[in-house]
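Task 17 of the worksheet. Students: predict the tertiary structure of the chain below and write it out as C-alpha cells. Keep your answer in the requested format; marks are given for formatting as well as content.
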Amino acid sequence: MQAERSVTEARRLSVKGIVQGVGFRPFVYQLATTLKLKGQVANTSNGVTIFLEGPLHDIESFLQALNTQPPPLAHVTQVDVAHLAPKGYDSFTIRQSREDTQRLTLISPDVSICNDCKKELFDPDDRRCGYPFINCTNCGPRYTIIDDIPYDRPKTSMRHFRMCPECQTEYDDPFNRRFHAQPNACPVCGPRVALYDREKKKIETKNAIETTISHLKAGHVVAVKGLGGFHLVVDAENPAAVETLRRRKHREEKPLAVMSGDIESIRQFAVLGQENEVLLQSRQRPIVLLEKKKDYALAGGVSPKNCTVGVMLPYTPLHYLLMKNHFTALVMTSGNLSEDPIAIDNEDAFDRLQDIADYFLVHDRDIYLRSDDSVLRIVDNKQRFLRRSRGYVPVPVFLKTRLKPILACGAELKNTVCLTRESHAFLSQHIGDLENLATYAFFEMTIAHLKRILSIEPEIIAHDMHPNYLSTQYAKEQSQMVQIDVQHHHAHIVSCMAENHVEAPVIGLAFDGTGYGSDGRLWGGEVLIARLDRFERAAHLAYTPMPGGAAAIKEPWRMAVSYLYGVYGKDFVNRRLPFLDRLNDSSLKIMVEMIEKDINSPRTSSLGRFFDGIAAMLGIRSHVAFEGQAAMELEMAAETWTGDLYEYAWSSEEPVLVDPHPIITGVVRDIEKGVPSSMVSGKFHATLMAMFTDLCQVIRKKTGLSRVALSGGCFQNAILLSGLSKRLGERGFHVLTHEKVPANDGGIALGQAVIADAIVRRGG
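Model answer:
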C-alpha cells in the first residue's frame, strides 16, 4: 500500500461554472497544499485549469473535495479530467490568468456583504472599520463592475485604484480570504464617498455618511449610489418625506420598497415566516413581499391601499452604515423618474435626479452595468420571482438540452433579454418597459455587454410577433442572424417548460394582460396545447372590445362598460351598480358608440382585462396609476372562499370559447344584492379556478395530456396560482409553475430562445 501511495500520477482538471472571483483558486491552493499535491492552478477564459501531481489516493481525495466543498459563491457545473505524464512540479502554485480562444466561464452575480466583512466593518480595532467598500472573495460586487473576462482587476472598474502595500499583501496571500478579491480596497487606497447638494456643491464634512443620516432624519430626499445604481432614499416612518418623494418622482401610488437593518426591525411592521426570513437573509438580498402587520408602523404612503410591503435587508457595507441603529426602515426606490432606467453615473444622476433629490451621496467606483433590485414573494412555500435581477444575474438557467447560440429579445414590458450557450440560458437583469429611447439604449447596451463577457455570438435572433415593439424592430435590423418570430403566450408556456426541464407537450394556461396573437388580436386568456416548436389554441376567453385601446388598460371602468354592454346591451346603464353613478352620461354614450361602431376598440381575450373589468364593477379601481393595479387590488380584497361559485360556460367548437357572460351576470346580481366586494372577489377567483380546472379535464380526455404549465403575469396573483395549482393537483394533473424566472414578461425571453432553437432544428 505504501508503494502504491508513492507512485506519482498526473491529472489536468478543467473546471467550468462560477469559479472566478469567488475564492476558487485559493481554495484549490489550500486543498492541494494540505494533501501535499504538486502542480498549479490558473484562471482561463473557460473557467479554471488545474494541474495535479501526486499519489492517486490524494488526487481522488482532491476531486471529491472539489465537488463537495467548494467556496460559498462557487458553482461547479463541469469537471473534465485528463490523464497526463508527470512533469515533475516541485510545489503547488497559482499562475497568472490566461485567455483561450473560446471563452466559456460563468460570472458570479453581485452578492451581499459576508459576516466576516460585516464584523470588521464595526470593529473599532480593524483598519477597515466604517469603510463603505469593504469586501472579500466571499462577497461584494461582481457583475456590475466587470468589463470583460477573465475576471481580473484590470478588467473591472477597480482598475483605477492601485492597492496600498497592506491590501496588496492580502491580495497576494493564498491563505488570506482577500486573495485575488478584485474589488479589494481600504480607506487608504480605495473608492471614497462624498456628499453633494443638488447644485453639485460638495458638502464639507468629516463623515459624509453621518451627515447623510442627519439629512434623512430631517426629512430630506437623498440619492444614494449603491451597487447596481442609485436609490432615492427617505425615512420610511416620515409621511411628509415619503409624499415629497412620490410627488417629485411622479410615482403616485405604486408601492415603494424599504430596507431595514435587521430581521427584528422588520418584525415591527411586517409578518415574517421562516421561508421569508431565509430568503431575506440569503446572499442575494432580494426585495421580498411581506404581509403588513395590523399595527403597521411605517408611513401609509410607502405602500398605499396594499396589504403587502416590499422589504430587503442591507447588502452593501454602505447600507449597513446608513441603517445601523438609526432607522426602522428607509425607503429605497430606484433612482429614476418613473419608467426611465435607474441612474448609475454620478453626472447622469445629478442631471436626472436634481429635481427629486435634495442631496447626493456618491462614490468614485464606476458601475459598468445597472442592475435593479430583485423582487420575490413566497407562494406555496416556494420562491416566486416578480423581477429577477441583482444577486441572480448572470447565473444561467440550466436547460435539459443544448441550444444553438441564440439571442432572444423579450417583450415590451418588463423586458429582459436571453443569450444561450450550450445548455445555459443567460437571462439578463431587468431592463424595464421598452417605451422610450433611454430604456432602448439600455436594452442595446445590455445585449452588447452580455455578448462580450459571455463570449456569445448568436446565430439566431428570436422576437415577439408584435410588429411595433422596439425589441421586434431591433431584431428585424439584425440581418446577419436567422430571425424567428415567436407568439407571446407560446413563449410564456415554453419558458415554464424549459425551467422545469419538460420537452413533451403540455396543456398551457397563459394568462396575462396583453399579448399579440397569431390572428392579429390581443390575447391573454389562453389555453394552449404547447410543444417546443409549435402550439395549438385549444381554448380562450371570448373576445371583448377594449374601447379606447390602450386607454382601457389605464381606465378599467372602460372594460367594465364593455363587459356589461356585452351582457345587457344599452340597458346596462339601468343596473344598480354604484360605479356607474360616478360616470357621466357623456362618457358612457361615447363608450357605447365606440363599441357599437368598432371605433378604436380592439378585441381582446385577456384574463387581465377581465380582472380589471370586475375590479371596476366592484368600485375597487376605475383608474390605475401603474400596470396591474386593479387586478392586484381585486386580489387583495378577496376573502376566503365560502364554497359558492358563479355559473360558467364555454362553447363546443374548436377552439373552445370561454363565455364570460354568466360570471358577469352573477357578479352584477351580487353587487345589486349588496354582497360585500370582498366576498364577490373571493367567489370570482374561485370560479375561475373551477372553470379552468374543468376545462383542463375536458382537454385531457381529448389529448391524454396530464401536464399543465401555468405562466403569464396573472400568475403573480397568489390566490390564482396557489388555488389553481391545488385544484389541478387534486384531479391528477402534474402542474408546472415558475420558480427560476418570473411568470410575467420578465421570463418570456427564455421561452423565445427555446422555441427558436426548436423551430430551427425542425427545419423552420
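Marker's comment: The chain is about 30% helix and 20% strand. The CA atoms of residues 342 and 500 lie 32 Å apart.
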